[in-house]
Amino acid sequence: MAPMVRHIADLISISASNGHPEGAPAWREWSMGDDMWLTHVRHHGLAATNKRRPPGTPTAQRLVVVVPDDDRWTLRHGTHMRAADAGALVVADPSLLFDFRAFGTGTIVVLDLPCSWLTLPDETIHRGIDELRDTNPLVPFVRNHLVHLGRIGARHPDILPDLASPTVDMLRSLLLTSAQTREQSSAAELLVRVKLYISEHLTDRNLCADTIAADHNISVRKLYAEWPSEEGRLSNYIIRRRLERARDALITRRHLTVPAVARAHGFADPTHFTKRFRAAFGVSPSQWRRDNAGP
């Protein structure tokens, strides 16, 4: 078995995970240029873990991508425990707790590169790693690409540096789509919560962007940025929802006068309420009530 080169040995300790008679894992490693490495490991059970470092030891920021060839493996990365999944792709930050175990006989392909290759903010990289799921449509493309790189390395390693740039492009796209999926999901969840909040506070005269943002722990700028353009201006949406609620109340709460309905739905000025109501529904509040008096 060839000794491991320094870049991997400094990051991860790889050893046999059982007493298989054929011994420890065997690997081949190829440079893809500028401290980017591709490793092919054949094993009969494998354990790959972080090397322990003294507290405060500086480490270069790197990304490790692992392609197992089957579903007989487990991964603990940071505070997350991941179950095996056939066709999976493992993307990890080796500076965090990393414990990968593969069982039985198999192979894995490992790509190791500096995060600087990705030209992405650290926050985006970490979010992309945390939110990566095997349902991401780019996962099978990246996985198959790395498997193919392993085959090329075994036959034509001199070609690998020419494939470094497209490989990084694929990884960058993978992490970006993963990070953006979370952002889109968070934005959708925020919108649902904001609309529910508005619905529950329509009778509050102080309901506005400032109070909505404050109660959701976001800035007014963030609120406006996430508010969908198809809903129109936020202030107009609130007025529209108040008018719709007031329109129903004119029928269901006939004991209230029109000014009382207006005040109960956030309109301090009954005249302003009447003007808005007519603009929205084509009739005055009084006329709407008369037209819907029932038998």
Give the helix proportion (percent range): 40-55%
Structural class: alpha+beta
- What fraction of residues sit in β-strands? 15-25%
Distance between the termini: 93 Å
Radius of gyration: 30 Å
State the order of secondary-structure elements, H for helix, E for strand. HEEEEEEEEEEHHHHHHHHH
Mean pLDDT across residues: 82
CATH fold field value of the largest domain? Jelly Rolls
What is the second-level CATH architecture of the largest domain? Sandwich
User: How many individual β-strands?
Assistant: 10
* Overall shape: elongated
CATH superfamily of the largest domain: Jelly Rolls
Number of domains: 3
Main sheet: which strands, in order across? Answer: 1-4-9-6-7
Count of alpha/pi helices? 10
Note poorly predicted spans: 1-7
Keywords: DNA-binding, Transcription, Transcription regulation
InterPro entries: AraC_XylS_family_regulators (IPR050204), Homeodomain-like_sf (IPR009057), HTH_AraC (IPR018060), HTH_AraC-typ_CS (IPR018062), Tscrpt_reg_AraC-type_HTH (IPR020449)
Organism: Gordonia rhizosphera NBRC 16068
Pfam families: HTH_18
